[in-house]
Amino acid sequence: MSATTEATTVAGLMEELAALDDPRAREVNLRHGDDHGVNLSKLRAIAKRLKTQQDLARGLWATGDTAARLLSLLICRPKDFSRDELDTMLREARSPKVQDWLVNYVVKKSPHTEDLRLTWFADEDPVVASAGWMLTVDRVAKKPEGLDLDGLLDTIEGTMKEAPERLQWAMNHCLAQIGIEHPALRARALEIGERLEVLKDYPTPPGCTSPFAPVWITEMVRRKEA
Q1: What are 68-117's pLDDT values in tens digits?
Q2: CA-CA distance, 96 to 35, in Å (whole number)?
Q3: What distances in angstroms separate CA 58 from CA 52, 81, 195, one per listed residue?
């Protein structure tokens, strides 16, 4: 398929993505809530070929297809999306991978990041709220000024144990980030993690760091101080 004609239309790209769909990869991805079977390295190669094309990105997103939306996020221009567009996109992005890429590749590069963080953080939908917590993790690490870190720990302490999975993961990441980046709060973060035992028994491959906050905090601090 030509890279400059058919494949640069939404219809052409949908055909290309369909041809790359691997049933075995789709089966694996479905276990994590992602309904697509396209190898991400191949998806990135398509994005590299297309470069930045905002109109095409919007067209791909509008299909509702998970692989097409992932490709859309790789070729879009983040600053061209309005605050309301990004809010709508996040609420439509039920696939964990799409949500993750939307937050990390697009929203974090948008002028609307902080406004959306505050909006999503307080949302009653735990999937939307998890995006707010993901953006909060970034602020804890890079720009903690103005954040109520003790208040965040209070919320984590009171709600993380029973939170739905995606929200729980984001809150746990925030707990670990506070412990890693803020020595004055490290003991409390460790104590909360030990007491709640969230992800304590999560299977971790050899050579990888456990997501259990006390282990995660301890290992990251050791690396920073090494």
Answers
A1: 999 999 999 999 999 999 999 999 998 999 999 999 999 999 999 999 99
A2: 10
A3: 11, 10, 45
Instruction: Please write down the long-range contacts of 132-140, taking CB distance under 8 Å and 24 or more positions apart.
Output: 133/167, 133/170, 133/171, 133/173, 133/174, 134/100, 134/103, 134/104, 134/170, 134/173, 135/103, 135/107, 135/108, 136/174, 137/170, 137/173, 137/174, 137/177, 138/108, 140/174, 140/177, 140/178, 140/181, 140/182
Tokens of 192: 């909360």
The residue assigned the tokens 């004609």 is 5
Which residue bears the tokens 């980046």? 181
* Cα radius of gyration rounded to whole Å, the chain: 19
